[in-house]
Amino acid sequence: MAVFAFKTASRAVLRRTHFPSRPQSQPHFTKRHSSNHPATRPKAEDDPASGTAIPIPATVANVPLWQRLGPLSRGFQAYGRSQRKRPYATQFCSSLVIYFLGDLAAQKINGDEYDPKRTLRALVISAGSSIPSYKWFMFLGNNFNYPSKVLSLATKVTVNQIFFAPTINTYFFAMQSFLSGDSLPEVWERIKNTVPTSMINSCKLWPAATAFSFTFIDPQYRSIFAAFITLGWQTYLSYLNRKRGIKSTSFAAVK
Fold this sequence. Notes:
- The chain is an all-alpha fold and 255 residues long.
- The chain has one domain.
- Helix content is 71%, strand content 0%.
- It contains eight helices and no strands.
- Helix 5 (149-179) crosses helix 7 (206-216), helix 6 (184-202) packs across helix 8 (219-254) and helix 7 (206-216) packs antiparallel against helix 8 (219-254).
- The longest helix has 36 residues, at 219-254.
- It starts with a helix and ends with a helix.
- Mean pLDDT is 74; it is low at 18-25 and 248-255.
- This is Mpv17/PMP22 family protein.
């Protein structure tokens, strides 16, 4: 019996030495947060039932009117992309289209039979004025910018009327007369008969159009805005050139 008890105790000692008992795992308790805890308590302003919820402001930016006109908006956007990538080519082609339509409208108003030579003269005049006109308005937009927006706008309008308006009008009527085959004295006579009248009438239109353009129109769309105004203006200039040309021819015949 003593031997059996000794063997049993030896086995127990060896078992404890080579195979230590695993510690009993502590029971896991999940901490339950109280609803009264400040971090979990719902805020009064977030509770719709409290009537004090703060509304979230709208994050959608206002879109200009001309960008909400369906196919017309896509046309404006395509023109803006072309203007940014190829400004000179875009301005050149736009000017050709404007002068072409303006001359067609003027011939229609006069009631005369369509004269393709007259349209060709208008396209030649457009080709010579498109890039300088674009460069001028870019210069005007990048300069005369003062802390006062009113002063900046008034300066731009005044400078445009004093320098650009008489220059472009003189160029238009002089080239119309020269391309028609008139001599230099006849060209000068055409300028004297047309430019003063056109300058007076331009003061009724272009200051307001220029002020509106530099105030509300983005730079990439200013040229297309001016194109719509120029379409009507070129129609008027073509009509005035034709009217003064008839008077000059009649005067020369009588003389």
